[in-house]
Design a protein that fits this description.
alpha/beta, four-stranded mixed β-sheet, 12 helices
Length: 275
């Protein structure tokens, strides 16, 4: 997908030059777009790219109501830079994989909602990044794979997020065969949230959904995401007890009170962030 076609129609507040590994921008609706911008190399998650993405996401998380990760070109991300891995010492290889883990945990644990918008191939650690996001939208032509086994490098780290996003049998199918799955299979398996028939429709719907999420109360959304991630690691009983406590805390938030009052008064809520 061409970057010019991917830009939101809303006026941009901040941008970064197109020569960088990523480009970033924030719209007036406080949606941050982070775009992988190394299409000639298939947007590999090199050490430099990993560091850049971590910096971009940390920066966006401090002020954004929603973050979108996307890419230029026909490949969302091909995963690790295999040339870099092959030439690196074991110490540097550890650094690369540990930094990749830092990125995936940053995304998965983020209290700011993070969406992946995929238009093309997402493979290996690129597929892992999609799996780590809170939501993933893709075009019909998109495909997903963990093909490391084909070259003698099992996708062990991508399997961490993949195995938590899809069912076990599908994860092992992808990891053992290395074969790509279609967007429809990814949807059925839980790797992506929604599939659109074209790149153009994906672009429009990505913007619409990101703006829709950004229109909600940010304190409420962040509270909800944090609780969801936390309760998923607990037993059913402990998760229910914790979530009940969070619901009460939610009601005590200014936006919680405003939302309930607005509903009872049959009017649109006025969030604190919008005043």
């Amino acid at each position: 997908m061409m970057l010019s076609r991917m830009l939101p129609r809303t006026t941009l507040l901040t941008t970064r030059g197109l020569s960088a590994l990523t480009t970033t921008m924030t719209t007036p609706d406080d949606v941050s777009y982070i775009t992988l911008n190394n299409p000639a190399r298939r947007n590999p998650l090199s050490l430099d790219m990993l560091n850049t993405l971590i910096s971009d996401i940390e920066s966006a998380s401090s002020h954004s109501k929603c973050i979108v990760i996307r890419s230029t070109g026909n490949v969302f991300s091909s995963g690790h830079d295999l040339k870099e891995l092959a030439a690196a010492s074991q110490e540097v290889q550890y650094s690369i994989f540990n930094r990749c883990n830092d990125l995936m945990l940053l995304v998965a644990k983020s209290s700011a909602p993070i969406l992946a918008s995929v238009d093309g191939f997402a493979t290996a650690a690129g597929c892992q990044l999609v799996a780590a996001c809170h939501m993933a939208l893709c075009s019909q032509r998109s495909k997903f794979a963990t093909p490391g086994v084909n070259i003698g490098l099992f996708c062990s780290t991508p399997g961490v997020q993949l195995g938590r996003a899809v069912n076990r049998k599908l994860a092992m199918d992808m990891l053992l065969t290395g074969e790509p799955i279609t967007s429809d299979a990814a949807l059925k398996g839980g790797l992506v949230s929604r599939v659109y028939e074209s790149s153009e429709k994906l672009e429009v719907e990505t913007e619409r959904i990101a703006n829709l999420i950004a229109s909600k109360s940010s304190p409420v959304v962040r509270l909800g995401i944090n609780n969801f991630n936390s309760q998923m690691r607990k037993s059913l009983v402990d998760a229910a007890e914790q979530s009940s406590e969070v619901m009460v805390r939610n009601l005590e938030l200014e936006d919680g009170k405003e939302g309930l009052t607005a509903f009872l008064e049959k009017r649109h809520p006025s969030w604190q962030q919008d005043k």
